[in-house]
Amino acid sequence: MIKAILIFNNHGKPRLSKFYEHYSEDTEQQIIRETFHLVSKRDENVCNFLEGGMLIGGSENKLIYRHYATLYFVFCVDSSESELGILGLIQVFVETLDKCFENVCELDLIFHVDKVHNILAEMVMGGMVLETNMNEIITQVDAQNKMEKSEAGIAGAPARAVSAVKNMNLPEMPRNINIGDISIKVPNLPSFK
Amino acid sequence: MPAVSKGDGMRGLAVFISDIRNCKSKEAEIKRINKELANIRSKFKGDKALDGYSKKKYVCKLLFIFLLGHDIDFGHMEAVNLLSSNKYTEKQIGYLFISVLVNSNSDLISLINNAIKNDLSSRNPTFMNLALHCIANVGSREMAEAFAAEVPRILVAGDTMDSVKQSAALCLLRLNRTSPDLVPMGEWTTRVVHLLNDQHLGVVTAATSLITTLAQKSPEDFKTSVSLAVARLSRIVSSASTDLQDYTYYFVAAPWLSVKLLRLLQCYPPPEDGAIRGRLTECLETILNKAQEPPKSKKVQHSNAKNAVLFEAISLIIHHDSEPTLLVRACNQLGQFLQHRETNLRYLALESMCTLASSEFSHEAVKTHIETVINALKSERDVSVRQRAVDLLYAMCDRSNAKQIVAEMLSYLETADYSIREEIVLKVAILAEKYAVDYTWYVDTILNLIRFAGDYVSDEVWYRVIQIVINRDEVQGYAAKTVFEALQAPACHENLVKVGGYILGEFGNLIAGDSRSSPLIQFDLLHSKFHLCTVPTRALLLSAYIKFINLFPEVKGTIQVVLRSDSQLRNADVELQQRAVEYLRLSCIASTDILATVLEEMPPFPERESSILAKLKRKKGPGNLHPDLDENRKERSVNGGTADHSSTTSNAKVFASPTTSTDLLGLGSTIATQNSAPPASKGASLLVDVFSGNTAAFPVATPVAVGPVADENFSSFLPNTPQVAYANATLPTAEEPEDKFVCKNNGVLYENQLLQIGLKSEFRQNLGRMYVFFGNKTSTQFMNFAASVVCQDALQAQLNVHAKPADPTVDGGAQLQQILNIECVSDFVDAPVLNIQFRYGGTLQNIAVKLPITLNKFFQPTEMTSLDFFQRWKQLGAPQQEVQNIFKARHSMDTEVTKAKIMGFGAALLDGVDPNPFNFVGAGVIHTKTTQVGCLLRLEPNTQAQMYRLTLRTSRDTVSQRLCDLLSEQF
């Protein structure tokens, strides 16, 4: 079972946290900090698995993580999950995000945290893997977006227009935008053609 | 086109997030957040009704604030309102808020449940999915109560869409995990199994997860899934890489589903049906073959997916542990991975090999990789990998390679990561003890441990070395010599001073003949360390000094000077001061004989479970403590039907072994001491005797003698894990075992599929000894085996039962003997309970059985004449002293059987006492520690009415009642 899915950046700022077991809010924050501490001190090119921190169950659980440019994707799982399987799942998650956001970057995760949650919900549910087929996931997300668009309709249009303009002027956007190259180097899957 | 266009977000949200990100300090951030929270709160409370868009925006803001680690204590109600919106976007954000923020005991649950109920019955698949997700993510009990019946229905309904089926399967799985009692098994179970044949691979994946969990709980119900899983797996494995289209991931056909199916198969033993078994073997061989093929892609994703399947296949092979060829192939494959350039694969290979090392077929094969593993220990950059290497070395260690492995681990210890040093120290200590052929090597190893990693050597480790040295004569001289040499180092660890002080104090005389280690030199050496040590060590050294006075009268003067110095006699620490005062006094006034008695060499310690092993268990948690069994895979269940050892063999074993029981009652006195205190405190009580019972002044004596014993950890035998699965806790109900044992002392106390408990016991006066034989009826080792005796409530004061520690493992088909020493303090009614706990496969088993220790066991028969009998009978004439019972015969009224029972009960059967020859008369004395109770009994059978009248007269009313109750049950 997947106990928790955490995404944080190189400075330990959480960008997504999803717990499939109940912890108090304080403990959740502590787990995020502890996990960041464990993961961030590791070199690149070491293995992607390590024993979980004390707060999330110690050696009973494993942290399986990947580091992409500015972000760490960490899955905390118990012994019933295949390590390499989860590693593959992280890849599917990131590739899906990349498809959905077109070259996903940290900012997308910040400004569209609800969307990221929705994409994740198509893959993992209640701590179990729901769907691993990227096309299926994207189909679902697309369908949701269509519904969203049709619901927003005319009423949503002005707001969207304004936000589009305003977003362009957000002062700190350029500063961060170049970390947008999350360098996943998503391959074009042959099977998708 | 991207699925999410970036422009159409909510402007207010974007501005807020930008503001936060622009905050220069934590304080500024908090200020901005508080401002926003106040704003949202006022908006929620305001008169103007908010439209869906605004609600959604504010809820998104709250989510963001929550993610930053701030408490959100409002907004829940608004989120719940969003659930009942007809708009998908609003509904979705409502569900998102709830699954992130609402915990399971919120009082909003009933409102949420209402919304979920509506969505589940909406027949809109998107809404149904949202609702199912919410149930699965929150997973509270109230939700389980509300939907446990509904979800299975959705899952197996014919018209449910695939995506909803997937969600329903996982939702049901979650409910089953959180509230298994609420999820009813029913006709849907067979239909769930058939989902393994579903067209849609996503549905199959979700169903496999569900079935795996359910099968762990009730394997029988889901047995049919094995053949379906094998069939499915075989189709996947043999398919061309393009057959499964979207479920092919980087040229690997449905890797996640394959992994899940292989996991499911690990819930069961190898299939019995030859055809299925053959097909499975074929699959596994194909998977192993594919590993040797050239990769279809250079991408790491390809190899990861392929190897995920491969490792799971290897796990299944190890789990089945039945096909030697597959096992050897698995081992070779792992061997290749050990040298792979991918760190992940090396890590996983080390981990899998650990479990493989416990298989008898492959233990030798695993051992051939020892050099590679040692190399990994030395050269891996990653501490997690090194740790796996340590685990594997520990697992593959046996007598043949123990010296090499211990040496390597010791040398690794010098550079090891601080976080794992203590664990390595414990492992080295355990291996050194377990495989020590010559104990000089053991002593050297432990001293090296202290030298290399003194700070990480816990008390248990040095206690243990002292226990072993004291118990083994042959190593004592060597130990004394070695510690003496080790202490000469200018800087040595305090733990070494402790061991050195203790051992020289006991056995310094063995090396005193050598002029280089004369008594005075020994003393000076020890005392040179004294001032650098902490108080407990100094206290120990003081005790060593007084032992020196006994061993070497020639240094008495020197030591007395030391004891008399102000720094001792007036030490600020009360313990040190007291020891100095008392030892000085003792050395001045006691005669040599008394000194020799008081300061006698420590008696051997009773053999017990290594306290180090107990410590490692505590450290590592219940799993992982012993290399011999795969315990890492918690999810793996006990698979039914492994109890194939015929019960006849284990029966025979139960009764064959107790050869030592012939003369156990010669040990009466030892039993007494063991009950009152650990035997090592003998020295202490002697000390007290010398000073005419002035115990208050001499509490110090105890630490002197007890030393290493102090850690004797009986608590580790008590069940200390509260969250045990009471899987097979079947209490015997058919016949109360104590009834069966009232008139006999030997027999089978308890039996289930896994375990048989046999008893053999003997009693004399108020003492008894019981041999308990635990027979493992399976072919698998029991791990963490612990049996403890609990006397509840009043019984605590009435009966002492001391269980000698026994081994923590019971091999398959083998038998473990545990000795219980029993002392009856006063008369009692209840029976003590024997709690047994062990790990079989992955599951913790708990068994509690009442021990048949009854009051009549402490009967001593008394022969007397007819005259005596009636005289005493009359003396015990007070109404409360007599208890009478008239009852119907439950067995045939055979005179010989009845006689045997009365004698078995413990009383003397007095012939020719009663005028009526058909009556039975008995007499005896119940011995308790506090009193002796004389008992007379008379049994009058009435064969026509098939009735008995039983009369008991004793000097204690409670005894009369209890004996009458016990005996009445027997006829």
UniProtKB/TrEMBL annotation, chain A:
<dbReference type="InterPro" id="IPR000804">
    <property type="entry name" value="Clathrin_sm-chain_CS"/>
</dbReference>
<dbReference type="GO" id="GO:0030123">
    <property type="term" value="C:AP-3 adaptor complex"/>
</dbReference>
<dbReference type="GO" id="GO:0006886">
    <property type="term" value="P:intracellular protein transport"/>
</dbReference>
<keyword id="KW-0968">Cytoplasmic vesicle</keyword>
<dbReference type="Pfam" id="PF01217">
    <property type="entry name" value="Clat_adaptor_s"/>
</dbReference>
<comment type="function">
    <text>Part of the AP-3 complex, an adaptor-related complex which is not clathrin-associated. The complex is associated with the Golgi region as well as more peripheral structures. It facilitates the budding of vesicles from the Golgi membrane and may be directly involved in trafficking to lysosomes. In concert with the BLOC-1 complex, AP-3 is required to target cargos into vesicles assembled at cell bodies for delivery into neurites and nerve terminals.</text>
</comment>
<dbReference type="GO" id="GO:0030659">
    <property type="term" value="C:cytoplasmic vesicle membrane"/>
</dbReference>
<dbReference type="InterPro" id="IPR011012">
    <property type="entry name" value="Longin-like_dom_sf"/>
</dbReference>
<dbReference type="InterPro" id="IPR022775">
    <property type="entry name" value="AP_mu_sigma_su"/>
</dbReference>
<dbReference type="InterPro" id="IPR027155">
    <property type="entry name" value="APS3"/>
</dbReference>
<keyword id="KW-0472">Membrane</keyword>
<comment type="similarity">
    <text>Belongs to the adaptor complexes small subunit family.</text>
</comment>
<dbReference type="InterPro" id="IPR016635">
    <property type="entry name" value="AP_complex_ssu"/>
</dbReference>
<dbReference type="GO" id="GO:0006896">
    <property type="term" value="P:Golgi to vacuole transport"/>
</dbReference>
<keyword id="KW-0813">Transport</keyword>
<keyword id="KW-0333">Golgi apparatus</keyword>
<dbReference type="GO" id="GO:0005794">
    <property type="term" value="C:Golgi apparatus"/>
</dbReference>
<protein>
    <submittedName>
        <fullName>AP-3 complex subunit sigma-1</fullName>
    </submittedName>
</protein>
<feature type="domain" description="AP complex mu/sigma subunit">
    <location>
        <begin position="1"/>
        <end position="147"/>
    </location>
</feature>
<keyword id="KW-0653">Protein transport</keyword>
Automatic annotation (TrEMBL), chain B:
<dbReference type="InterPro" id="IPR017104">
    <property type="entry name" value="AP2_complex_asu"/>
</dbReference>
<keyword id="KW-0813">Transport</keyword>
<dbReference type="GO" id="GO:0006886">
    <property type="term" value="P:intracellular protein transport"/>
</dbReference>
<dbReference type="GO" id="GO:0035615">
    <property type="term" value="F:clathrin adaptor activity"/>
</dbReference>
<dbReference type="GO" id="GO:0030122">
    <property type="term" value="C:AP-2 adaptor complex"/>
</dbReference>
<keyword id="KW-0472">Membrane</keyword>
<feature type="domain" description="Clathrin adaptor alpha/beta/gamma-adaptin appendage Ig-like subdomain">
    <location>
        <begin position="739"/>
        <end position="852"/>
    </location>
</feature>
<dbReference type="Pfam" id="PF02296">
    <property type="entry name" value="Alpha_adaptin_C"/>
</dbReference>
<keyword id="KW-0254">Endocytosis</keyword>
<dbReference type="InterPro" id="IPR002553">
    <property type="entry name" value="Clathrin/coatomer_adapt-like_N"/>
</dbReference>
<dbReference type="InterPro" id="IPR008152">
    <property type="entry name" value="Clathrin_a/b/g-adaptin_app_Ig"/>
</dbReference>
<dbReference type="InterPro" id="IPR003164">
    <property type="entry name" value="Clathrin_a-adaptin_app_sub_C"/>
</dbReference>
<feature type="binding site">
    <location>
        <position position="53"/>
    </location>
    <ligand>
        <name>a 1,2-diacyl-sn-glycero-3-phospho-(1D-myo-inositol-3,4,5-trisphosphate)</name>
    </ligand>
</feature>
<dbReference type="InterPro" id="IPR013041">
    <property type="entry name" value="Clathrin_app_Ig-like_sf"/>
</dbReference>
<dbReference type="InterPro" id="IPR050840">
    <property type="entry name" value="Adaptor_Complx_Large_Subunit"/>
</dbReference>
<feature type="binding site">
    <location>
        <position position="43"/>
    </location>
    <ligand>
        <name>a 1,2-diacyl-sn-glycero-3-phospho-(1D-myo-inositol-3,4,5-trisphosphate)</name>
    </ligand>
</feature>
<comment type="similarity">
    <text>Belongs to the adaptor complexes large subunit family.</text>
</comment>
<protein>
    <recommendedName>
        <fullName>AP-2 complex subunit alpha</fullName>
    </recommendedName>
</protein>
<keyword id="KW-0168">Coated pit</keyword>
<feature type="binding site">
    <location>
        <begin position="11"/>
        <end position="12"/>
    </location>
    <ligand>
        <name>a 1,2-diacyl-sn-glycero-3-phospho-(1D-myo-inositol-3,4,5-trisphosphate)</name>
    </ligand>
</feature>
<keyword id="KW-1003">Cell membrane</keyword>
<feature type="region of interest" description="Disordered">
    <location>
        <begin position="616"/>
        <end position="653"/>
    </location>
</feature>
